[in-house]
Amino acid sequence: MTTGDLLARLRAAIKEPHTSIHRLNISRVPLCLPPHTDRPDLYLLGLSRYAELFYGIEEAWLSLIGDPLDWISQDTHIANVNLHTEVSSPENDLSPPEDTNPRIQTVLRTLYIPELLRTKTLQDDLRLLNASCPPATQILIQPPKHQETNTGQRIKHELRNRIQDKPHILVAYVWIMYSALLYGGRDIRAILLKAGPEFWGLSVAEINPQRRIPCPLSFWHINDEAEVKGKFRAGMTDVERLLSATEQQDILDEAGRIFGILEILTRSLDDDVKVLNARV
C-alpha cells in the first residue's frame, strides 16, 4: 500500500505553512507576559482556545482505538498504570464504533503514546489559571450556554465531523499538533519561563527546569521527551505501509488545511483580546 516516505512528504508539504504559523504564534506569546501585562489572563485565553483542538483530537483518537487497557498487553513498553492518566473520565466512552476499519484502528493504535496526550494537563492548567482570572476573561473562555461558542469550540466540532467521515486523516492532526509540542514547544516554554515564577503563582523551587514543570505550565512538560520523540517518529514510519495511496494523499491534503485552521484560531485571539481589553 505504501507510495514512498509519507513522513518526508508530510514534512515537505508543511514546511512553509509551519514556518508561517510558528512565527505568528511566537510573535504573540510575549504579549501575554510582563512587561505587557502583570496577569496571565491573556495566556489563559490563548491556551483555552488551543485546548479545544487537543480535546477534539484526543476524544476522536480514543473513541477510534478503544480502551487501551483492552488491547495493550501487560508486557508492552507502556505501563498499564499510565494508560488512563490523560483521558479517562466517567463520561468518556472508550468503546470504538462497530464500523471502525480494523486497519485504520491499527494505524491509530500504533501512534498512541500515553505520554503525548494533553487533555489532563490542559484541564489542570486551565483550572488553576481560571480560578484567579477576572469574570470578563472567564466569560470569554467559556461563554454562557445561550451564547455562540468560541472559535476553538467551533473548530473542535468541525474536526470531529471531518474525522468521522475519514478517520485516517486523524494521522495528520496527531503528527502536526504533537510535533509542534515536541519540537516547537521548547521555544515557547523558554519564553514563558522568563516571566518568572511569581507571574505564574509558583516558587523558585517549583519552576526548576530539572524537575517536572507544574501547573499552570504542565502542558509544556513531557516525561521522557527524547524517548517519546523516538517512539513518535518510529510510529509514523510504521503506519505508512498500512495506508493506501488515496489515504496518504488525504493525510497530506489535511495537513495543509490544518495550518489554515491554526491561523484562523490565532487571529481570532486578536479579536478576543480587543473584546477583553474593552471590558476591563
UniProtKB/TrEMBL annotation:
GO terms for molecular function: heme oxygenase (decyclizing) activity; metal ion binding. The keyword Iron applies. GO terms for biological process: heme oxidation. InterPro entries: Haem_Oase, Haem_Oase-like, Haem_Oase-like_multi-hlx. The keyword Heme applies. Keywords: Heme, Iron, Metal-binding. It comes from the Eukaryota. PANTHER family: HEME OXYGENASE. This is Heme-binding peroxidase. It comes from Penicillium cataractarum.
